[in-house]
Design brief:
The structure holds 2 protein chains of 2 kinds. By secondary structure, chain A is α+β, with helices and mostly antiparallel strands. Chain A has 4 helices and 8 strands. Chain A folds into 2 domains: 77 residues, ACT domain (Alpha-Beta Plaits); 74 residues, ACT-like. Chain A, domain 2 (Alpha-Beta Plaits, 2-Layer Sandwich), CATH 3.30.70.1150. In chain A, helix 3 packs antiparallel against helix 4. Chain A is elongated. In chain B, the strands form 4 sheets. In chain B, strands 3-2-4-5-7-6 form a 6-stranded parallel β-sheet, with helices on both faces. Chain B has a 6-stranded parallel β-sheet with strand order 11-10-9-12-13-14, sandwiched between helices. In chain B, helix 11 crosses helix 16. The longest helix of chain B is centred in the N-terminal third of the chain and has 17 residues. The two termini of chain B are 41 Å apart. Classes of the chains: A alpha+beta, B alpha/beta. The interface between A and B is medium-sized, with 32 and 36 residues.
Chain lengths: 156, 634
């Protein structure tokens, strides 16, 4: 099962490496990982999407709890939460498909960041599933040049 | 996000105490007598070590740690002038030796061992002891010199990315880049090493931080809010009355309960409480390799060691029990074999551990408690006694006694070649479970675990989880510093002792009365045993019969006044007696039967019903030796 785990981490040398190292050395899977500052200047929030059965997820949470720099671990999948991912999509679209693309963008709730002679850059913030769906859909209207995804963020 | 992945620590000016952490609130202890004094970073390091009560340092010098070595020298000079004990600095042949000396000191004393080494190769030579200490939950603090902060990341001379390398193998690692946080970092390193599930903490100390001058505060620790709040929570985890009641309700249904005791009981200083608990209700005890000594091995309730090379009677007791109580043990692969088949008859398993990740990690249990095990056992015992829980396990006791008699350890007592077991029995007749025994890794390690008695915890020093050959000699040296008056014996193998043979000289340099036994079977005996059993006898890389080393001459060259080769069965008792009674460092090489094996044996990835007992130990049922599944074999 897919889990979104939020880790509050002290801003210490090597802290991020230790979290990433824990996953690789114990063979846990990381589907996405995103890190940024919080309102506490000495704490960063690391949001990680992983998959595993209940025993694996329990181990991940317990093992994270053994890292000294980890302030708090929260498995957001356990309760009500909001999940968002940011997509930046660069694509080249023939004129014949522009209307379709425009509809798809407004339906998904995205917007065009750049519109050059050569390509578009589209921004979309949505759930991971809808972002994936939008990328597939957009590919039908043109040539996808670059897909940049932030990985999921969540708040409970 | 540069902040998170850079080596920059907390911005200076950040409060040392974290607002999230009420536990870190200052208690306003009396001011340190040296508070406010100007010192170098190196002097602060030595002062914090002194404040922590560190009686001995193990380490090897080098460019990047020189300021600290100089400060140790000056400190010891001042101590000598003032007539008080300083911190002797014990210099090994190789930094790995210093790490295992610190570990041996920590294991034997229960206190934090300290090693101090230089940057680059000095620090990377310390990787094996640090991982070894993590794997066996041993508290040490390793101070590593590092190139100056301005040179970090430039491929400087003797530079290695120690916070990265050690981050993967230590309980925690600090890289001190802000010298104003130096003393707080060192205090925090000791705190982390000794609290919770103990382990190794590495502090990487750039040379300019050691040379920096500042005002010594004499107090303060780093904010580690997550760690401290988890620790506080752990300490607050008292066994509730309903949890106790549930435990005894289940125990009341059992006729054949068994305590399965691991290193957590030794490391948690819970042996006395464990013994009271076992005795209060008459519950027999098996221990893991790491748990040896938690129970007096000569006690009637002791069923000795279980597992891959455990006693046959211990493993049969595990098969026969109907209620298993795991205490500070983690169902390791050397114990549980095939977890699904481990303790198959147990209708109920209870598990005590200080580390929540160990509960249900390998084997699902019906009842568990995460917390400090001595407190938990005391609460549980008091509950049982107050409820008048007085079970009659006499049939189970009789069954265990019969198992012990029928399936005792045994070997070829008529052989004309020296049997290693006989040598250990001869030493044990003199030491009677009171000596500190350190070992290398391999057959000799298992023979020592099987044939020595251990009356107390912390007498048995062995590299259990990591299985590091070369552990024994430096660990024995470290233990001798913990207990200068106690008999310390390194039981080693010819291959294991070679790994850190340079430390033979360390023992004579410091005139330590360590007794070194090398059971020489001219090869890697345990590897050969596996090759005989599972690789059709192809002794790839494990035979040392062409090696030319004369161990006795080597020991003599290193200054051993007692260096003897024992190669006749008839001489065992007299030679062992002279060796043990020798005042000062002593070396004994014993030429043993090269085909002597370690039995019983539960093959890797096999279950207890597949245990083979060899020619001389009675098996309960015939077992065919079969190679384990190669994917399971490690």
């Amino acid at each position: 099962m897919r889990h979104i785990i939020a880790i509050h981490l002290q801003n210490e040398a090597g802290a991020l490496t230790r979290v990433a190292g824990l996953f690789s050395s114990r063979g846990y899977n990381i589907e996405s990982l995103s890190v940024a500052a919080t309102n506490d200047p000495i704490v960063s929030r690391l949001t990680l999407v992983t998959t595993g059965n209940d025993a694996v997820i329990a181990q991940i949470i317990h093992q994270l709890g053994k890292l000294v720099d980890v302030v708090q671990v929260e498995d957001m999948t356990q309760g009500l939460h909001h999940e968002r991912e940011l997509l930046l999509l660069k694509l080249r679209v023939p004129a014949s498909q522009l209307a379709h693309l425009s509809t798809a963008i407004s339906t998904a709730g995205g917007r065009v960041l750049a519109d050059t002679l050569d390509h578009f850059v589209v921004e979309l913030t949505s759930s991971e599933a809808l972002v994936t769906r939008f990328v597939t859909e957009a590919a039908q209207f043109g040539e996808v040049l670059e897909v940049v995804r932030s990985g999921s963020l969540g708040i409970s | 996000m540069g902040l998170l992945i850079s080596t920059v620590p907390l911005a200076s000016g950040t409060a040392v105490l974290h607002p999230l952490d009420p536990a870190a609130a200052p208690l306003t202890p009396p001011a340190h007598p040296l508070a406010g004094t100007r010192m170098t970073g190196a002097e602060m390091i030595v002062q914090v070590l002194d404040d922590e009560g560190v009686p001995v340092l193990f380490g090897y010098s080098g460019g990047a740690i020189l300021p600290t070595y100089d400060a140790v020298f000056v400190h010891n000079q001042r101590c000598e002038a003032a007539g008080r004990r300083g911190m002797p600095l014990i210099v090994p042949a190789n930094e790995q030796g210093a790490g295992f000396m610190a570990a041996g000191y920590a294991r034997a004393s229960g206190r934090v061992g300290v090693a101090v080494v230089t940057s680059g190769p000095g620090a990377t030579n310390m990787v094996t002891p640090v991982r070894d200490c993590l794997a066996d939950s041993i508290p040490i603090v390793v101070l590593c010199g590092q190139v100056p902060t301005a040179a970090i990341g430039t491929d400087a001379f003797q530079e290695a990315p120690i916070s990265q390398v050690m981050g993967a193998v230590a309980k925690h690692v600090f890289l001190v880049t802000d010298p104003t946080l130096l003393e707080a970092t060192l205090r925090t390193a000791f705190e982390i090493a000794r609290t919770g599930r103990p382990g190794p903490v590495v502090v990487d100390l750039p040379k300019d931080v050691q040379n920096w001058q500042g005002v010594f505060q004499g107090t303060g620790a780093l904010p580690i809010p997550g760690y401290r709040s988890r620790l506080k929570h752990l300490r607050a985890q008292q066994l509730s009355a309903p949890a106790c009641a549930e435990f005894f309700a289940q125990l009341a249904l059992a006729q054949r309960p068994l305590l399965y005791v691991g290193g957590g009981v030794v490391n948690g200083n819970a042996a006395a409480e464990l013994r009271r608990f076992a005795a209060a209700f008459g519950i027999p005890v098996v221990t893991t390799l790491m748990g040896i000594g938690a129970m007096d091995t000569t006690h009637p309730l002791s069923m000795h060691m279980l597992g891959m090379h455990g006693a046959a009677f211990a493993n049969y007791a595990v098969e026969d029990c109907d209620f298993l109580i795991a205490v500070g043990a983690r169902f390791d692969d050397r114990v549980a074999g095939v977890p699904a088949k481990f303790a198959r008859g147990a209708k109920f398993i209870a598990h005590f551990d200080i580390d929540p990740s160990e509960i249900n990690k390998v084997k699902r249990v019906g009842w568990s408690h995460v917390g400090e095990v001595d407190v938990a056992l005391a609460v549980l015992r008091a509950h049982g006694e107050s409820q008048g829980f007085a079970p009659d396990y006499s049939a189970w006791h009789a069954h265990c006694a019969a198992l012990r008699r029928t399936h005792a350890f045994n070997y070829d007592r008529t052989s004309t070649m020296i049997q290693p077991y006989a040598v250990i029995e001869a030493i044990n007749r003199l030491t009677r479970g009171q000596a500190i025994i350190a070992t290398g890794v391999g057959q000799h390690q298992m023979w020592a675990a099987q044939y020595f008695d251990f009356a107390e915890p912390r007498l048995w020093l062995t590299s259990g989880s990591m299985g590091t050959m070369g552990f024994g000699l430096p660990a024995a040296i470290g233990a001798q510093f913990a207990h200068p008056e106690r008999l310390v014996i390194d039981i080693d193998g010819d291959a294991s002792v070679r790994m850190n043979l340079g430390e033979l000289e360390t023992a004579t340099t410091y005139d330590l009365p360590v007794k070194v036994v090398v059971l020489n079977n001219f090869g890697d005996g345990m590897v050969r045993q596996w090759q005989k059993l599972f690789f059709k006898g192809r002794m790839s890389g494990s035979d040392k019969s062409l090696h030319k080393k004369d161990f006795v001459k080597a020991a003599q060259a290193d200054g051993y006044a007692f260096a003897v080769r024992l190669d006749r069965v008839a001489d065992i008792d007299a030679t062992v007696k002279a060796f043990i009674e020798f005042q000062g460092p002593a070396f004994l090489e014993v030429i043993i039967d090269p085909d002597a094996g370690v039995y019983p044996m539960v093959g890797p990835g096999q279950s207890y019903e597949e245990m083979i007992t060899g020619e001389f130990i009675t098996s309960r049922h015939p077992v065919l030796v079969k190679a384990p599944d190669s994917s399971e074999m490690f």
